Amino acid sequence: MAKITAEYIWIDGQKPTAKLRSKTKIIDPAKSLADIPEWGYDGSSTEQATGHFSDLLLRPVKMVPDPLHREGDLLVLCEVLMPDGTVHPSNTRAFLRQVAERYKEQEAWFGIEQEYTFFDGNRPLGWPDHGFPAPQGGYYCGVGADEVFGRDVVEAHADACMRAGIHIVGTNAEVMPGQWEFQVGAITAPDIADELWLARWLLYRIGEEFGISATLYPKPVKGDWNGAGAHTNFSTKAMRAEGGIKVIEEAMKKLERRHDEHIKVYGAHNEERLTGLHETAPIHAFRYGVSDRGASVRIPMATTKEGRGYFEDRRPAASRADRAAPRWGLLASWSFSSRSSQFPMTSRSTVIPSKRRWRSSCRSSSSWPASWPSRASSRCCTRRR
Ligand SMILES: [Mg+2]
What we know:
Layout: E1 4-11, E2 20-27, E3 39-42, E4 55-65, E5 74-81, H1 93-102, E6 109-120, E7 123-124, H2 151-164, E8 168-173, E9 179-187, H3 191-210, E10 213-215, E11 230-235, H4 237-240, H5 244-257, H6 259-264, E12 288-290, E13 297-299, H7 301-306, E14 311-313, H8 327-332, H9 375-381
Parallel strand pairs: 1-5, 12-13
Antiparallel strand pairs: 1-2, 3-4, 4-5, 6-7, 6-9, 6-10, 6-11, 8-9, 11-14, 13-14
The structure holds magnesium ion.
Magnesium ion (MG) is lined by residues 113, 115, 174, 181.
């Protein structure tokens, strides 16, 4: 029987923002997680171990069809364990599983809007070699080669997510040129976190085919340009039921009391983004409002009208580590329900029709304005997070 490739994907130990890693194993065809062997890797190269005691264990926890390769090939998301099988300190998914189980009767749903910024070499994709593009205003949900940049990558990514069985529900061009968003959900935990990480991995991997990188850095360009967030739409069964608006209002009081604790797990460098400008509330203030995109939490008009529904937490940075999401449950006393993993084994073909190299040459950093992130920080420290 022909072998398949399984791409083992895991999260490393980098701080303050963890990064995705992956490597390929050739295995026999697999129908379930039980058919996929555990594997090891060098934790000293991922900031998860010392060189003297470097072997760590990868335990497969979710498998989806690999949309970029042959029928039967797989993407395999893994938890990181110590050699003796205990949970590695960087493995917050293990904690998420426990919280999801504890609060499963609340049937929490999450829908995450993942914003990100494409970079071509050392500048945002589509930006001029010198100076800046025209001010913001016409780019959001724009159309035309003078307004949106990278649609080929966005469409290839959405197609790959769909083929992988990820619950992607939409994409749009964002306010800053070169910035985009995709949405995943609404689903329960831990699937929302698993699928978001897999979708991020696919974004970076597909970007390779185009010579374009993506960053989740929350404020990739300083100044009068929007940052990148991960707006999180949330509801529990009680919030979705008749009279749920009262439960949402109670939740707002709890969120306000624990605002600082939430900010701590909503992504590094978020203070650069949450300034009170560019559709954000200041990082040290908590405010909620109906249809208010300048608030910390927005209650959609439809929720107010119907007296039930969901709310949108606008504080998380694009780079938030979504394994931290279960802390919401602990902080606000509601959260999560578990859901069995799904992987539709549908037939598919290779997603990317042509391997097209865009402008992959790196330009001189001499034209990089001093107020922008350095080339080193944009390529080495902030991308792929
Ligand atoms: Mg957005």
